[in-house]
Amino acid sequence: EAGVTQFPSHSVIEKGQTVTLRCDPISGHDNLYWYRRVMGKEIKFLLHFVKESKQDESGMPNNRFLAERTGGTYSTLKVQPAELEDSGVYFCASSQSLRASTDTQYFGPGTRLTVL
Amino acid sequence: RKEVEQDPGPFNVPEGATVAFNCTYSNSASQSFFWYRQDCRKEPKLLMSVYSSGNEDGRFTAQLNRASQYISLLIRDSKLSDSATYLCVVNRYNFNKFYFGSGTKLNVKP
Predict the structure, then answer these.
(1) How far apart are alpha carbons A30 and A94 in whole angstroms?
(2) Residues in chain A closer than 8 A to B34 (CB atoms)
(3) A31 and B49 in contact by Cβ < 8 A?
(4) pLDDT (tens digit, 9 = 90+) per residue, B71-94?
(5) Do A42 and B34 touch (CB under 8 A)?
(6) Are the Cβ atoms of A33 and B98 closer than 8 angstroms?
(7) Per-residue pLDDT tens for A26-70?
């Protein structure tokens, strides 16, 4: 079974540009999560989708970040315009069951974003 | 105060040693507990869930102390391949977001 996949693996952009990250969850997983790790800090939650609906977006830093999950399959996370402090590793994770609070989350390999 | 606190290490141990990591969490509403392992520049991977009764998987033993709000991971007979960063993760009841510790780095030396 294929795991969580993310694209691109690396992205280097200049401040003010736009970047879109993509996540494909494990097939059949209704729950999809975005997390971010900035240098020297712990991994932090950004948001959670259940199918195509945003369940919790309390971790989104500001309105420069827009996440979508059209059709309840893959998800995109757009940063527009990017700022220097957005640099970090963006992880996507997915989990299966309705009792998501106790569910194992499976992580993708991450997208390493560098904003210059 | 951070949700989850871990000693960053590094813990440098010889092969065959037993090593233990602790982690504390601040919110008593925390419901689910996990240890994830993360290799350099890779994604976190589930090592084991942590249950109230404690659980063991081969050389790995996890314990939960709800009264003191800490979680432990014991690794026996360390292997070179155990070298990684170990992430303590908690999840609150009815919340679906993981709270991560900053990780404890383990180096197992020959």
Answers:
(1) 8
(2) 104
(3) no
(4) 999 999 999 999 999 999 998 876
(5) no
(6) yes
(7) 999 999 999 999 988 999 999 999 999 999 999 999 999 999 998
